[in-house]
Amino acid sequence: MDLHQKVKGKIAERRDEYTEFLQQIVKEPTTTGNELKAQTFMAERLKGNGLDVDEWIPNYDELVKSKFFNPIRDNYEGSPNVVGVLKGASNKGRSVILNGHIDVVPAGDESKWKHHPYSGDIVDGKLYGRGTTDMKGGNVSTLIALETIIALGIKLKGDVIYESVIEEETGGAGTLAAIQRGYKADVAILPEPSEMRIFPQQQGSLWFEVDVTGESAHGGTRYEGVSALEKGWIVFDEIMKLEEKRNAPLRKDPLYKDNPIPIPINIGQFNGGIFPSSVAEKAKIQGRYGVAPGETIDEAKEEFVAMLENLKTIDDWFEKYPATVKWGGIHLPPGGVEMDHPMLKILQEKFVEVENEEAVLAGSTWGTDGGLLTQAGGIPSIVFGPGTTSMAHFTDEYVELDKLFRTAEIIALAIIEWCEIHSIKE
């Protein structure tokens, strides 16, 4: 029996076990600050496989030293990182990080879910629940890959570092803490929900808050005031024009050719005023700003600030009362690998071996911890996971179990080729 068939067979043997483990961690509502129980399950699992396991609480004082850190809280008690290391037999072997986040976004209005968000229900081959796609299903797929290598008695030359991190959804503190703790490798794979497409490039993302000033007056004589909301619409229109300007070049990139807005700028909130019969004196526009692959966060910010400064040429109100921006929350840089990177080639080859068709290469339209790995850690990163992109953060989120297991098969084969076999214990 060849190696591929051994990997496939070993995964099939334990399919029910892995499905139950995914259900177990999906049933834990691991929103920010509530990751402890699920992380304990992950640590116990890694220890059970004989890995060197590191559990620690990220240190705010260390994190804040990084230019990539924009905190949403000042301590991480109850939110541990978990890293397990499968040591290679040779310090000359190539290493890989398998990075995934355990945190999930809130479920929202639970009455709109057909399947309870923390049920782990299985219907028609789909496992439902918040975080199944983004990205507990992906985390289990890389865990399966790792455990399959161990179960087959394969000793690799290079290290495999399994990272279950906190707080990707709110800024990347967990992955940044792992980098600061010294976890490095030659390449990283992130099983984010790519629908089994391979993403060599991932955009970054920033959260912004623009303040717009008006002049208050009574609503009955609103012509005596200046509405910050009306001025805010001017800012809104210019932000949308900036989005088009920034996206036009990327539509020519083969990785983004089928995407209408490769690096979106999303306006999530537009608020202003304090009273129905008063002219709004202040307005606030909050949103998410896509950062292009190959672009730095500073470069992206500079283009946004230049747009705001140009407002005074459109309306002289902004000469006296300029719109200002603050950056907070999500602060993920773009990441990726060069198109000739050997791991990218290996993943494509193993995809064909398992799926009997060519892999689709694309660029992500959302930020991931891959940007931190690439820019803060100097580690090339590739996104490849089983989740359904459109279901991330969505009601009745699910992951297709068949895709999860096929992804695990592909990643196991890729790790074996990348890290190379030192020996096999029959």
Describe it for me?
This protein is α+β, with helices and mostly antiparallel strands. It folds into 2 domains: 3-202 and 334-424, Aminopeptidase, CATH 3.40.630; 205-332, Alpha-Beta Plaits (2-Layer Sandwich). 34% of the residues lie in helices and 22% in strands. It has 12 helices and 18 strands. The chain has helices at residues 3-13, 15-26, 36-48, 60-63, 132-151, 173-180, 228-247, 297-309, 317-320, 342-355, 370-375, 401-419; strands spanning 52-56, 81-86, 96-101, 122-123, 126-128, 154-156, 160-165, 187-190, 198-202, 204-213, 265-272, 282-291, 324-332, 335-336, 361-364, 381-383, 398-400, 421-424. Helix 1 (3-13) crosses helix 12 (401-419), helix 5 crosses helix 12 and helix 10 packs across helix 12. It is elongated. The two termini are 13 Å apart. The relative contact order is 0.19.
**What is the CATH architecture assignment of the largest domain?**
3-Layer(aba) Sandwich
Global Rg: 23 Å
- Please tally the β strands and state the result: 18
Assign the structural class, choosing from mainly alpha, mainly beta, alpha/beta, alpha+beta, or little secondary structure. Answer: alpha+beta
- Morphology: elongated
Strand content: 15-25%
Number of domains: 2
- Helix tally equals 12
Biggest sheet overview: 6 strands, mixed
In short:
By secondary structure, this protein is an alpha+beta fold.
Break the fold down into its secondary structure elements and pairings.
Blueprint: H1 3-13, H2 15-26, H3 36-48, E1 52-56, H4 60-63, E2 81-86, E3 96-101, E4 122-123, E5 126-128, H5 132-151, E6 154-156, E7 160-165, H6 173-180, E8 187-190, E9 198-202, E10 204-213, H7 228-247, E11 265-272, E12 282-291, H8 297-309, H9 317-320, E13 324-332, E14 335-336, H10 342-355, E15 361-364, H11 370-375, E16 381-383, E17 398-400, H12 401-419, E18 421-424
Parallel strand pairs: 3-7, 3-8, 8-16, 9-15
Antiparallel strand pairs: 1-2, 2-7, 4-5, 5-17, 6-18, 9-14, 10-12, 10-13, 11-12
